[in-house]
Specification:
- A two-stranded antiparallel sheet has the order 1-2.
- It has a single domain, classed as Orthogonal Bundle (Arc Repressor Mutant, subunit A).
- The chain is mostly helical.
- The chain starts with a helix and ends with a helix.
- The protein has 5 helices and 2 strands, in the order ααααββα.
- The chain is globular.
- Keywords: DNA-binding, Transcription, Transcription regulation.
Length: 103
Amino acid sequence: MSSKENVAVHQLLALLESRYAIRVLWALKDGHAQTFRLLQDSVGGVTPNTLNTRLKELREADLLTHGSDGYSVTPTGADLLKRLSDIQAFAGKWSVAQAKKVK
């Protein structure tokens, strides 16, 4: 992996590690736009200030957009969510394997 690719990976992971960032994206993964209030309820436990900050960061990263219907993922955000679904499948298998090790 080139140094530019390393930097890009680190930047993306830093963004996704931000509190509630993945939960915001996950709440929008079905492709339907959500208003701020609905998104706040979907994410759960997030303060308005934190949600505003995450939305701003995710919009600046071209992962979200805001239209008349509310917030939704961009094509880039949809691509990321598709790739994250692979991680979700892996995590399920990994979790089962870990549980078997404990027994």
